[in-house]
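[job 4417] fold queue: 2 targets
>>> target A
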Amino acid sequence: MNTAGHSEATERRGLELTPFRGLRYDPDRVGSLAAVTSPPYDVVVRPDGLHHLQDSDPHNIVRLILPQASTPTARNEQASDTLRRWQDEGVLATDPEPGLYIYEQRHSDGMLQRGIIGALRVSDPSEGVVLPHEDVMPHVVADRAALMRATSANLEPLLLTYRGNGATAATTEVVERLAEEPPLLSTTTEDGYSHRLWSVTDPADVTRVQSELARHQALIADGHHRWATYRRLRAEHPSPSPWDYGLVLLVDTARYPLRVRAIHRLLHGLPVADALTAVEGLFRVRRLDTPLPEALEALADAACAGNAFLLAGDGAFHLLDRPDPALLARTIPADRPAAWRTLDATVLHATLLDHVWHIPEDSPAHIAYIHDTVATIEKAERDGGTAVLMHPVREEVVRDLARQGVTMPRKSTSFGPKPASGLVLRALDP
């Protein structure tokens, strides 16, 4: 997604990344850095995962990103009070000078991801600088906006990707040179990922990074709701202000490719038997009495030939594929690109959820979006609902649609690894 070669005017409208004074945990004031981190707020599987994180350390970041109280207002006030108390107590301390931050994630399976964390100028989609690829749910944006207003902070970075020039890029040179030096922090979380953070404070290095990024555009890999929140909050505050910028992690996927995984659906109150009865004659349905890995392989094979979904929740797996073409013609909008019309997520939302199962896609009482496959199945079995397991979308499809300005159905993709929340925060108070 390199815009190099465009006009000078276009180049000036590229990514504008600004140093900031990071707000970070003092390792001497917490049990361990790993114990205070969390996955992003929308990856935490509630309530089990939430309780686990809360119990891991009294200062776990989940107490800020997912505060627990009886009302939304009380939750946000609680997060604000907690943040200020931790700052007053020295649990969270502001770095002495502004900088960008190099962030590394590494796993024993060979995954290595490095990127740059900074405050990015918030832009509108019409500028073509930050490209969304998914729709957002208004109630989630409203929730995140209220939390950010209350705390006056960016509590976790969203994940953006851009296509650099691989190993020859200036940003890559800065990242890989500084990654040879001792980090500001280093920790390994229980998922097996090691995390390291360095600061970039040398003016020459900062300028090199900024100059290169100014020639690029980025794709939102994770954090559509938070980016929409940034845009809403920027509109609420007269410019210039700290709200003109939002906390992001930028990863050059030409150098450090991401993994793309599916986001599954949990349908509350819809037993598997009822879901299967409703699709009878509309999809081919096959019961799979196999372990999960083999069922997912069958899903992948079916997805290569067309739309396919795996239902679970009754102790077995049910593969849905070969939808009735007449059903698709009736339910899928015809005014979108073919790549969009044939997405599994499009068929799921426009056909199955809307027309067959009559489930509103933005109602938390009816549907949950869960990244972890096993957790989705277990919750469906426990609650008597239906798990809809998805096959991931190829990254090339995501980028192609984003370039066309076409958004995918919400929660269509999960890029990873996602940045751990709690390693660096951005306070917006003057």
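>>> target B
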Amino acid sequence: MIERYTRPEMARIWSEQNQFQKWLEVEILAAEALAQLGKAPKAAVARIRKRARFKIARIRKIEREVKHEMIAFLSSVAESLGDDARFLHVGMTSSDVMDTALALQLKQAASLLSQDVRDLIKVLRRQAFRYKRVPMIGRTHGVHAEPITFGLKLALWHEEMKRNLSRLEKAAEEVSVGKISGAVGTFAQISPKVEAYVCKKSGLKPAPVSNQIVQRDRHAFFFATLAVVASSLEKFAVEIRHLQRTEVMEAEEPFTKGQKGSSAMPHKRNPILSENVSGLARLMRSYAVAALENVPLWHERDISHSSVERVIAPDATILLDFMLCRITYVLRDLCVYPENMRRNLERSGGAIFSERVLLRLVDKGLSRDAAYRMVQRHALKAGKNGGDLKREILKDAEIRRTLSAGDIEEIWDLKHYLKNVDFIFDRVFH
């Protein structure tokens, strides 16, 4: 992933240094297990633990000759150990080390992402309560529907991110699996006790059954989950972009001192942060597709998945980390304009109260079809050329035979639409 979207902590997880360190740790743990089984001298393994080193430049130099990264790595480590190196990689295949180490890196990355999600949830909670009773128009199909509050919109997002946190934790558990079972997963050349030891010490679960690799349905689930989280973030971003439109202007991204919105037009304040999140979400979904393509490998394994994962494992986690931090900042410092929300609420000429009029007529004994017809003929004109639904309802003799002026006045009480806000908040934030 390009530096622009890479935050330092996630970068460290996917550094070559951390990758090879994880490989080395798996190798050393396997050697320790062999020593416990009497298959390697404990003194030799102690020396391995103390002395084992690698040099990235040396690995790459050897790799250019042997064309095999694991062999190059082991050769570099062996140069620091001498004869003790023979107790490394005993009965193991490359994937034993690489898949187990990848699980450790993904577990690290998932832990960081989970904290990012928790930070976003905290911001959403705070903002939901801040705007709990700030009324705004609810829109369906992009068209004015009925009143909601901005706090309810944020509570909805809060609940979604709670689900995403659960999904992410489940996906992390699903992929936190190691395997030390040899060339095709039969343990023919290595004891299952080695696998058990390595996984326990690493905080992983042993794969109940494997072939040469940990099965990629686990990884597909992980990356698909990241894509779901990213799609939620895009949903929030798209909403902010719509709310920042000049014609709406109900909420706006933070715009810092000295910031410029356009190279040509000095007046512009563009929703560039949210647009960025929308664009990156497209990449995230493509990574999920790539992970799904990795599931059907040939027989006991081929390496077509390897090149894919070298890209998507760091890129997907790096991007989601960046996206989460970006949208958290946007929502934390969001500029909200309640006065514009109120103005837009009133733009429809009272048409937003049409359902209440309809239901009140039905309550008074009219058929739904008849009531709908009566209300619609006025509601479709409301907000156009100064049209006002309440005024027209009051003038409609047919309706007035059923509804009194008091009935109509009571219908136009905005508080009716907000009466269950506390109930909803209690369910979300219990």
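[job 4417] complete. Note on B: The radius of gyration is 30 Å.
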